[in-house]
Design brief:
CNF1/YfiH-like putative cysteine hydrolases, 6 helices, 21% helix, 2 domains, six-stranded mixed beta sheet, 23% strand, alpha+beta
Length: 249
């Protein structure tokens, strides 16, 4: 099966290239079938290496693969070594590739309107709450009004159930975050424990707006619901990872 890659539909400068892989294509066997790019999930290392090689043929250089921990550290491509513990990466030179791996968490790609700097961030709810997007914007080192962002596929607002403590933590930081949650079941507002459906896309837009980034694109699809196209950790547990990548030419 040929790779089925998503090309972001956003008004990025012509010198900026970006793509998001799906699970289609590749050589990984179940439950990682087929285009798993993660080395830490139990897949055959030879299969992961072959999948990465297939991807590498379409890139100007090897991506800076991160060790992601749901934190806020931002790595510098060209400075930090592969495997650095970080949940975002920024690149300033042509041919340097930023990459993050996801399987329900939200991948966010960023660039400035002139294409002088690019970045990728891994933004699950823990990273969003901790401030990974704000830290990524800060690390880009340019005026936030000049930044464009693209939100890749993540678990959708009809599938991502969280507890009351998650909702309250977001609202305490940004009261507008209340609009990104709705009861998981009708008629449960007065019952405890409360369960809520969280909209990662909406939460990311709120956090980016708070950091001064208003031009945000993407934010569609649901990794949990679309098993044919996307990996989902919450749906499957033992599964692969997709990659969101961005670079300058």
């Amino acid at each position: 099966m040929r790779p089925d890659w998503i090309i972001p539909d956003w008004p990025a400068p012509v010198r900026v290239r970006a793509l998001m892989t799906t699970r289609a294509g590749g050589v990984s066997r179940p439950p990682y079938d087929g285009f798993n790019l993660a080395t830490h999930v139990g897949d055959d290392p030879a299969a992961v290496a072959e999948n990465r090689g297939l991807l590498r043929a379409h890139l100007p250089a090897e991506p800076l693969w991160l060790t992601q921990v749901h934190g806020t550290t931002v790595a510098e491509v060209g400075h930090d070594a592969a495997g650095v513990v970080a949940d975002a990466a920024v690149a300033r030179s042509a041919g340097q590739v930023c990459a993050v791996l996801t399987a329900d968490c939200l991948p966010v790609l960023l660039c400035d309107e002139r294409g002088s700097v690019v970045a990728a961030a891994h933004a699950g709810w823990r990273g969003l709450l901790a401030g990974v997007l704000e830290e990524t914007v800060r690390s880009m080192g340019i005026g936030s009004a000049r930044i464009l962002a693209w939100l890749g596929p993540a678990i959708g607002p009809d599938a991502f159930e969280v507890g009351e403590e998650v909702r309250q933590a977001f609202i305490e930081q940004h009261p507008l975050a209340a609009t990104a949650f709705r009861p998981a079941l009708p008629g449960t507002l007065d019952e405890l424990p409360r369960k809520w459906l969280a909209d990662l896309y909406a939460l990311a837009r709120i956090r980016l707006a708070g950091a001064g980034v208003e031009r945000v694109h993407g934010g569609v699809g649901c990794t949990y619901r679309d098993a044919d196209r996307f990996y989902s950790y919450r749906r499957d547990g033992r599964t692969g990872r997709m990659a969101a990548l961005i670079w300058r030419e």
